[in-house]
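Whiteboard transcription, Tuesday session. T.W. wrote the structure tokens on the left side:
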């Protein structure tokens, strides 16, 4: 288990350089007292491991920029890929407050490294919600969401070798209408494409609104035992009233898919069994080739926890997805 005595740890992403696993994670000081305040104080930390269990914390990867900047409030969740020329690209979410409305505007930028330890931000942002394909913030009563959701970039190579694709937590600019409760149901798999990782083209979403989710956070397409899935996250409070009243528990969700770029069965997604977990991630164990699952512990007995689990083994039980705690050695506290 990875935890810090002085800070909450939550969203994270990993990359394997062939010798070590690298864990990039959001963290904020517990001196804030209120865990909800962590979002506006988030930096990106970094730890390394040889076994996905024992982690050594190293120099932080990113901090927010000086104002004015698209990431002058906080740096949020992202992903890391390697360019064919050997450089590592970290795509991340930048958060800033819009003075006129006080809204939290989220945009996407990137930083570059040659060694995964020292990162240099590129001028940004490289992608923002456009108001035509993807919803931008509007204050009440016209607005129907609490911020400008456009974040959590997950970047992958095109399956046919044609450039790079980015999956984005976003909301459709069109979809269920009516009163604000109906308009909640606009969460989609946002999409962008790039030939070179530096210049990006915004494209229509890879899923449709009206599938039962206000947002699909921190997505990851993955093949588990030969079955293509899309992993995403949504708390019950960010689902339409019909879903909330049905008694469903939010958390980590898994949807069947035909390929990494869809189509995805979002409406038929199943929630992973432990509702205390959030932001699940699949990782391939380099030694065994097995798929492992990590997540952060969101809450326990009604209190926010903020620590990352040891890896779980994953299996299919028919059409149900199951987690089993893996046999591990004593994990690092991150000290």
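and on the right, the sequence the group agreed on:
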């Amino acid at each position: 288990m990875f935890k810090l005595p002085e800070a909450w740890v939550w969203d994270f992403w990993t990359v394997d350089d062939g010798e070590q696993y690298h864990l990039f994670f959001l963290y904020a000081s517990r001196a804030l007292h209120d865990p909800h305040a962590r979002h506006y104080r988030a930096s990106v930390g970094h730890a390394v491991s040889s076994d996905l269990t024992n982690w050594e914390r190293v120099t932080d990867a990113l901090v927010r920029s000086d104002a004015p900047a698209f990431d002058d409030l906080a740096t949020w969740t992202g992903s890391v890929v390697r360019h064919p020329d050997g450089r590592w690209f970290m795509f991340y979410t930048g958060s800033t407050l819009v003075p006129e409305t006080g809204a939290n505007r989220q945009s996407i930028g990137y930083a570059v490294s040659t060694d995964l330890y020292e990162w240099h931000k590129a001028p940004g942002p490289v992608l923002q919600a456009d108001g035509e394909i993807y919803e931008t913030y509007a204050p009440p009563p016209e607005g129907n969401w609490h911020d400008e959701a456009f974040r959590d970039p997950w970047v992958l190579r095109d399956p046919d070798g044609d450039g790079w694709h980015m999956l984005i937590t976003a909301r459709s600019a069109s979809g269920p209408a009516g009163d604000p409760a109906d308009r909640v149901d606009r969460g989609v798999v946002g999409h962008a494409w790039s030939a070179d990782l530096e210049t990006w083209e915004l494209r229509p979403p890879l899923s449709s609104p009206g599938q039962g989710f206000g947002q699909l956070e921190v997505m990851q397409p993955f093949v588990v035992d030969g079955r293509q899935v899309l992993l995403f996250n949504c708390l019950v409070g960010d689902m339409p009233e019909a879903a909330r009243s049905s008694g469903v528990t939010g958390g980590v969700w898994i949807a069947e898919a035909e390929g990494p770029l869809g189509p995805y069965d979002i409406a038929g997604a199943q929630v992973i069994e432990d509702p205390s977990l959030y932001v699940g991630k699949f990782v391939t164990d380099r030694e065994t080739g097995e798929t492992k699952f990590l997540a952060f512990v969101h809450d326990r007995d009604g209190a926010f926890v903020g620590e990352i689990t040891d890896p779980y083994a994953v299996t299919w039980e028919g059409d149900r997805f199951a987690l089993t705690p893996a046999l591990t050695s004593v994990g690092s506290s991150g000290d």
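Someone added at the bottom: The chain is about 5% helix and 45% strand.
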